[in-house]
Amino acid sequence: MADGVRGFHLIKRYPGARRVPGLVLFRWDAPLFFANAELFHQRVLAAVAQSPTPVRRIIVTAEPVTSIDVTSADMLAELEHTLTESGIELRFAEMKDPVKDKLRRFELFERFGAANFYPTIGSAVDAFLKSTRSTGSLELRLCGAVVSGWSA
């Protein structure tokens, strides 16, 4: 928890903030297209590798993503496969409807599952916390972002 600052924030800016073990929030501030698809892939895997605890779920906070092309759709399919093989769930929060529509056209929305797209970051984090409670291991950690002023 970062004192006096509510919401989710970069750990680099708030190093003393509270983390949720097993969870990575990953924010991408650009459209996903052929020129940056590989960089996105690399950065997601780097965020997982840099986590101080084993990652169970990564949530892409996708509100800034305004578009996606076929190259990045292929990359997302590959990324989801790689993460799943490592026992990591891929989820999305705050994705714009037109971007979801493109995922439908690329047949990825159904592959990922409608239930894995959350309307807010908070609802995505709540779902993760609820799943950890049901397995009996609630711990608090965020990698790449922090929980501040959040009540679970």
Helix coverage percent: 25-40%
Average pLDDT for all residues? 86
Beta content comes to: 15-25%
Assembly state (oligomeric): single chain
How many DSSP-defined strands?
A: 6
SS-derived structural category: alpha/beta
Largest sheet: 4 strands, parallel
Describe this structure in words.
This protein is of the alpha/beta class. The protein has one domain: 2-Layer Sandwich (Transcription Regulator spoIIAA), CATH 3.30.750.24. Helix content is 38%, strand content 15%. The chain contains five helices and six strands; from the N terminus they run E-E-H-E-H-E-H-H-E-H-E. The strands form two sheets. Strands 2-3-4-5 form a four-stranded parallel sheet. Strands 1-6 form a two-stranded antiparallel ribbon. Strand 2 (23-27), helix 1 and strand 3 form a beta-alpha-beta unit. Helix 1 (37-50) runs parallel beside helix 2. The radius of gyration is 15 Å and the shape is globular. The two termini are 12 Å apart.
Helix and strand topology:
Layout: E1 7-9, E2 23-27, H1 37-50, E3 57-61, H2 70-85, E4 89-93, H3 97-105, H4 109-112, E5 117-118, H5 121-134, E6 146-148
Helix pairs in contact: 1-2
